[in-house]
Amino acid sequence: MINQEKVKAVMELHREGVQDTKIAKLLNIDRKTVSNIISRDGNCEQKTREDKLELDDELIRKIFNKCAGYGERTHEELGKMGIKIGYSTLMRKLRELGLKGSKKSFATSVPDEAGEEFQHDLSPYKLDIGGVRTTLQASSLHYRYSKINYLQFYPSFNRFKMKCFFYQAIKHFGYVPKKCIVDNTSLVIDRGSGKNAVFNREMIDFAKGLQFEWYAHEINHSDRKAGVERSFWTIETNFFPGREFTSLEDINRQALTWCEYRSKKMNKQKIIPFDRFEHEKNYMSPMPPYVMAPYQQLSRVIDQEGYILLGTNLYWVGLQRNMEVTVLEFLDHLKIYHKRKIVSEYPLPPYGTRQKKFRPKGMNIPYRPKKTTVPPNEEEHELRKDPLVNEYLSLVLLPLGPQSKYQFIRQLYHLYKNLTPLLFKQVIERALQYKVSKKSTLERIAVYLMNKDEVVIDDFNLPPDGEEILYGKEPDFTNYNYDDSQKNLE
Predict the structure, then answer these.
(1) Which of 101, 139, 386, 400 could bridge 404 with an S-S bond, Cβ 3.0-4.6 Å?
(2) What is the pTM of this model?
(3) Are residues 150 and 238 in the same domain?
(4) Residue 351 belongs to a domain
(5) What is the DSSP annotation of 350-402?
(6) Distance between CA atoms of 249 and 482, rounded to whole angstroms?
(7) How far apart are CA 146 and CA 276, in angstroms?
(8) 414 part of a folded domain
């Protein structure tokens, strides 16, 4: 109800001949209310609000608990019982009884001030990129005062990508506001939230170099950055429909063109963002010219062909094998250093490029044939001449692959050349009996047989039975006889 002071003011202005519409604007009240006051000649009695319905608190508690704490179901059940009550009235009653929490308090409205802030947020989307369903992260930056936006898409988004995005966006616009409003993302915040957030030291230094500061809104108060939140709805309803994207680079080019077009178009607030940004430049800091593009430092070792591996692709360096180099990976290119001297520089290939080799233009690298394995056909043929060895090889080689087969045949052939034929045959007999397929076990079997004297050596050239085996002539010790030596001395 309107207070009596405004009623008197309405009547006085009416007597002075002021129109009803003008009275409503001057007193900030509805025009129909002004007409109602005049029709009643200012006789408007104040009425106190009275509840039309006596509500049973115990009944409401019982129905609320029965409905598992859902207010809408409670309202439906009360309606079935013949209790007619408005939904908002029921919610107010539930809050009074302590059954429902207080209404959500929205973030305090902050006026748009030139050069004061910009806002950042992420949103995932599943899009058809070149006919393939791909999940991308849309990163959007919104200047609050001028309403301009910067949009890019990434297959994944981490702290390094976030620094690259801010660097490119600020470089594109050339000017940066005083602070950036973000949600409570771990990419920027180490711990805490809202006003108690502790920001990451790396991100603080990055923002300091570009002359802005991080600010986080309170949890569940995303309306504090409503500008960038609203931009995602515009992306979904204006950027995606009717457009086709052939690659990640293509969608980012189209996104940049779309943002530039939107900045020169008047929005619903009768604002042209580009013109307003020209005015906002006077209140922002220009991007420092000395700021270097973000990069991440990696360490790599050169392989035998002179390449280093980055991701799934190879980049030629040309230094000696096993030398360690330092790689600085930027968003769109990389630099390779050795002992603080740059040795190579490459642009990064388009997204999705895998298992490719890159080298400087015009450089011919000598052809190196791939390593090939020569099958041991001759060794296997010689071993299989013996039926026992042939049976053993057929059993052992059956579950092995090509490389393992070749290796085992060469190992067995080496054992065949270093043992006597009879000992080798006895070893194979035992190996076939116990299904042995390791060279080390075959060698232990051979040692065991020799130690047990189970090896028959009748194939050696031995003397006839009864003859003494002499291993050498008996030495002559006469020169060392003491008596003879004394005579010689005399």
Answers:
(1) 400
(2) 0.58
(3) yes
(4) yes
(5) PTT--S-EE--TTPPPPP-PPP-PPP-HHHHHHHTTSHHHHHHHHHHSTT--H
(6) 105
(7) 5
(8) yes
